[in-house]
Amino acid sequence: MEITPEIKERLEKLQAKYAAMGQDMVSYLDGLLHADFLTYWDYIHLDTLLSLQTPKTSFPDEEIFILYHQITELYFKLALHECKQLADKSNLTSEFFTARVKRINSYFEALTQSFDIMVEGMEKEQFLQFRMSLLPASGFQSGQYRMIEIYATDFSQLVDKEHRERLAKADLKSQYNHIYWKYGATELSTGEKTLTLKQFEKKYEKVFLELAESCQSKNLRCLYQQLKARGEENPELQTQLRQLDVNVNVNWPLSHYKSAVRYLNRQPEEIKATGGTNWQKYLPPRFQKRIFYPELWSEQELEEWGKAWVYSVLGTPQ
Ligand code: HEM
User: Fold this and answer.
1) Is 72 in the pocket of ligand 1 (CB under 6 A)?
2) Residue 318 pLDDT > 50
3) N vs C: which end of the chain shows fewer Cβ within 10 Å?
């Protein structure tokens, strides 16, 4: 075989690379000689991925429910992947910021558009039966969903709206004690925390508080304000952040709410939600009023947060 200048150049680079680490290049070439060719299925761990669906009942539609939750968690992971890069970026520019928020938006838009897989895609009678075998588990317990929020804005913005202003400058623990989701997981009959919430807190409270602490000066809202103070913001970044606010706090919650309405609304008697929660008063965005970037909205837009969308998605005032 002829050792062409191209091959020689690569060998020299490899030699330098291994020498720098005190390694013998020839041994590594031996390794290459024996190594198998990579396959698609090994690379993405396909067999493992496809073995992760273990329904608790024999209703076929439960598999759809599991798979769609897993798909959603993978998209959440994609969103977090971008959040982390933004938070850790040194010399952040508005171009990079804009491009990465745009990616997160495309993930949430894919999720919002595909939510019909839940809303229309399962037989109601099957759903109502298999979900009883899943109690007290709920998508409410998605840790990644809450982490995206912690990365997206100041922790104080996640405080329940009744306490948000009062606790705006409070310490993280006090804010956490009134975080919005705790109000969605109280048993209607007793006013007690649901088991769903108790288990969620046990697993994630420490993780959330640590993340909130580390995001205090590098959440997306903070990063935006830092860029703005340096005169480096741009209109496209504002547009993308506004879109993120709508995607995470209005559009996705509404498509999700639509599935709760489809499966759990039964007149005249309501079907209990996972933990016996008042989900109809809790889930709609216009009641929660979670807003990541209030400074990017007008008074009127803030006032009417989520309203127009409720009507256009669900058809009737809720
Ligand atoms: C048929 C489909 C679904 C129904 C009927 C449904 C129902 C509900 C209900 C009633 C709640 C309120 C808390 C509770 O009582 O458990 C809730 C919360 C939640 N669910 Fe779902 N859900 C569905 C699908 C999903 C999917 C696919 C995900 C994706 C991970 C998800 C994620 C969440 C999250 C993150 C919350 C908390 C929302 C918040 O705190 O504002 N859900 N869901």
Assistant:
1) yes
2) no
3) N
